[in-house]
Amino acid sequence: MTDTSSCASYAPENRALSADEARAHLLAQVAPVAGREFVPLRSALGRILAADIVAPHDVPAHDNSAMDGYAVRFDSLAGDGETRLQVVGSAFAGNAFSGLVGKGQAVRIMTGAVLPAGADTVVVQEVTRVEDGAVLVPAGQKKGQNTRRAGEDLAHGAVALAAGKRVGPAELGLIASLGIAEVAVRRRLRVAFFSTGDELASIGTPLAPGQIYDSNRYTLHGLLTRLGADLIDLGVVPDVPEALEATLREAAGVADAIITTGGVSVGEADFVREILARLGEVGFWKLNIKPGRPMAFGKIGDAWLFGLPGNPVAVMVSYTQFALDALLRLSGLDPLPERPLLTVTAANAIRKQPGRREYLRGTVAAVDGRWQVKTTGNQGSGVLRSMSEANCFVVLPEDCAGVQAGDRVEVQLFEGV
Ligand code: AMP
Ligand code: MG
What we know:
By secondary structure, the protein is α/β, with parallel strands linked by helices. It is built from 8 helices and 26 strands. It folds into 4 domains: about 5-35 and about 190-330, 3-Layer(aba) Sandwich (Molybdenum Cofactor Biosythetic Enzyme, Chain A); about 35-60 and about 150-185, Molybdopterin biosynthesis moea protein, domain 2 (Alpha-Beta Complex); about 65-150, Molybdopterin biosynthesis moeA protein, domain 3; about 340-415, Beta-clip (Beta Barrel). The chain has a 6-stranded mixed beta sheet, with no helix packed on it. A hairpin with a 2-residue loop joins strand 20 (about 295-300) and strand 21. Mean pLDDT is about 95; it is low at about 1-10.
């Protein structure tokens, strides 16, 4: 190939890219798409912040009590023995004590109540005794104890949440605690997707001989909905060059990213390749993984194209391992989530030849207090049941030459995907 464009020329024709190389290359290419909108706080759940959230005031706004007890001046307390303090009033959350706490005085105070002027320390109720209008405080109190300082969570003007953060339940609460009712979020990523294959029938239609139902579009519907994208479902496209070309053009006109399944393996790729070369800049990759060896990646107009394999499990592997983080970056998420690999004990032997990185489907469970993983039945790349029954991928590295029961292996939990 004489093409020097970044996508097309990246994979030397006959070399398989490692999973790490492919990921690094994808992530180096894509950058967040422009565009933001303001939404009411509740609607920001799951969205990505387009600007920093800055604290408009201190949080908490006032010094306040962390416990139920008595607000006192530390310098009222004797170094040893009990101190008798006169109780001059009460402070409740939302109903402050307006006076001053003088030397020798205490104010009964509840958790969250503003610390009265003059007081600097709270003595917990449990250690005190009350005797005709006075409270007896034992020795051993520490200055400032059981108080929360104004600005302790967030100082006025501090960045409470940085742009690029996804808004989850904690962020909703945090933004509410600042009194902010509307937030700037990145616009949703628009993702167009379709299935390719002459053998595919859409659900709701009878199967002709030799046909199978298109399942990939439903899997992708689930994955992309979880991602928080705006979905553009373009249906099933037969293996007909004119139809593929028309659909790709349509998709590139309306979407930030296009995901296709099928038609990228050797043989079929030759036929799709010619269309893609005409429409944009797309490279066909051979990945050193199983399942999910073939994949296309590139750009048509302004839209990124992820051409995933056709096999249903391979779709999920290549989506979760490659497309997902690229889509998150396009959506503006920063930093990308770390998906940890956990090391657990293999409950069964797994056959493998050295060479490729393999993603098997497994269930992680605690057996007698130890975490173990068991692979889920038939691991064929067309067997979606192996995904449905699983809660993790068992990730076997390139050089692994098989696993014995009792060996330690790495797993990647599905949670969050
Ligand atoms: P392909 O990559 O197009 O050669 O497809 C590989 C395998 O995946 C074939 O057995 C296809 O029938 C199957 N396949 C392709 N697309 C789909 C789909 N959308 N739903 C279910 N199976 C599919
Ligand atoms: Mg096909």
